[in-house]
Amino acid sequence: MMENLGISFDLTVVWALILALAIYIYVVLDGFDLGLGILYPLFREKKERDLMMNSVAPVWDGNETWLVMGGGGLMAAFPLAYAIILPALYPPIIAMLLALIFRGVAFEFRWRTETRLSRKLWDGAFIGGSFIASMAQGVILGALLQGIEVEGRAYAGGWWDWLTPFTILTGLAVVAGYAFLGACWLNLKLEGEIQHRVRNMARILGLVTVGFIVLVSLATPFLIGIYWAKWFTFPQIIFTAPVPIAVAVIAIALARSLIGHGRDWLPFVLALALFGLCFLGLGISIWPHIIPPSVTLWEAAAPEKSQWFMLVGAIVLIPMILAYTGFAYWVFRGKLDPEQGYH
Predict the structure, then answer these.
(1) Which residues of the chain have pLDDT under 50?
(2) Taken in order 6, 8, 14, 17, is the CA torsion positive or negative?
């Protein structure tokens, strides 16, 4: 259609970018939300925990809209990839979904408990759900990076192929990264002594997160030959080298932003930028595959007419979701008033 007008327009690439955007938005928005659950055990007072919950209460469920969009978009736009990835990663995917369910239920039910024991049980579900969901997402990422065994158009590996030292490393990296995002979010939303504590946590978690980024980055090129070629051979290194350099610059800026006080929004924004660079590095590594090293985007894509049909819906819905999300964060912007919580 567009080619008749002399315009090059690859629908498959467009859909890959749409899904990448949805996944990135989910990771950074639900990431700090999950990070609060990971940090939750470090705060023992009920008042402090209520403050943490109130900081995300207006927006947490809307954050997961992007997960639904990412999963639904993968099934519709890249059905072959969906059919291969699911059986390869059923255990961590099921663990993630169950953890998100328990976590969501705990989020609401803890406000309605009347006994200390039941509150502890729901708090435990919130902590466990946050950690397991974060760990599972990291394991899924690692399993995709290390490659999925494909024969013809079907998964050819075993039930436990996803579980390796590398996937455990990526799982822990995501847990640390989400905890760091959560600390930066709390630094943005809170004041007083509790803000001072989370700022100190953010400094430590920032170092841990950068350390995991270095470890994962060093391990990834040894997984599949195409990764090494993209990052360490000439002339590809000319185009990929700016990414780790930018990561180093952002890491230094983050460290400086967490020293002292003032501009509480800056560490959170820089943390989002750090995740964005990591996401860019991931995209560079796996491109043009959707399932490394066997299935490319075009091999997994739906028919062109289906992609056009879905694109019309995406053009309408995505701006609406972005507008709603932006409006929700705008309405509940600013520091949290301890005396006027959301619940």
Answers:
(1) 1-7
(2) negative
